[in-house]
């Protein structure tokens, strides 16, 4: 078996792995990325949050992405029974970025990988991590290439950014019940030739079907549009097992978008994913760290997946670099606690979305601008700023404001 050695082994070339690799390459650290698939490859997670722009910039990947002409995303619209809750990232509590992109991930992830390769990052595509063994802090990883070749890679440190591959979580028995459970999703793309011009054909929109079920509309700059439904597993069980039939029946349940997509053939058979949330018991151990979806995933309602994937990828790379330079790193405080703080805020928002409390705030007739801006900062991914009351008091504040709306004694 051929043997290789690297300082840092990164599993997975999604946004988490690519931001980690970009940062390490920029700081002259030898790293090797192992990616199971050939790129470009389809994956879901097409609407980003402004916070992730900071991470792409720090990893040296932003200017390459800017050349791609992806659809810019300046905010998001939520619709329920014709009521509209719209958020503009320019009007938020935190300064930060006020725009980002919505993009087909095959092209987006390809652009990230190509930029890293151009700068000298080594990525082995079509290569799957099969087994990892740790000996003290060093690791020995067995990988299998599509052509049948086996390699053994020794590394000082592993960043596991394998997404739903969940390489180390599966191997080390780290899987745990996620913070949000019981949701499934189904999605596809169409070529929307009759797309309306302007905002109506550009703005990402979430249509609420009922408190626990919603639909996404994500138009891309290449003329394709992503459509998807998310709801609890029970809601899905009423539809056909044939995903195309099921998706067509679901489209008929839409109100605002009723009839708009029915004439378009699906570009691929709708993909159904059950139990989309993921969790782990531990985010790091001797010689490794879990980043992005290989660590955890909550729910797509606020498009937080890539923001967390890049935030954790960048944080992990920074700490790994420090460690390599001989500095002491407290992975619990500097990584796990930091990531958990952000995840907790989002999980409150996700939970309160599905209880209906957050929906009361979003669709309230006369919202108070100050509150809207504080919520908007969270929706833009700025979930670590404890100066924002909607971050600091995330556990109670949504419930409390919803209660006041119920009592109709607050103009929020
Ligand atoms: C229905 C749904 C909708 C979503 N919508 C959004 C959204 O709108 N916005 C958003 O930000 N997020 C969204 N997400 C979440 C988003 O998909 C993820 O958070 C994001 O892709 C995570 O990035 P990552 O880099 O961690 O993993 P990935 O992008 O999944 O990359 C992991 C890579 O690892 C590779 N890999 C896996 N196993 C191995 C192995 N054994 N060896 C080598 N390589 C391996 C895979 O091939 C893959 O390329 C959604 C998720 C779901 C389920």
Automatic annotation (TrEMBL):
Keywords: Coiled coil
Coiled coil: 314-341
InterPro entries found in the cross-reference section: FAD-bd (IPR002938), FAD/NAD-bd_sf (IPR036188), Flavin-dep_Halogenase_NPB (IPR050816)
Keyword hit for DNA-binding: no
Domain FAD-binding: 6-212
Signal peptide: none
Gene3D superfamilies according to UniProt: FAD/NAD(P)-binding domain (3.50.50.60)
Short name of any one Pfam family annotated for the protein: FAD_binding_3
Entry's Gene Ontology molecular function annotations: FAD binding
Protein name: FAD-binding domain-containing protein
Annotated source species: Salegentibacter echinorum
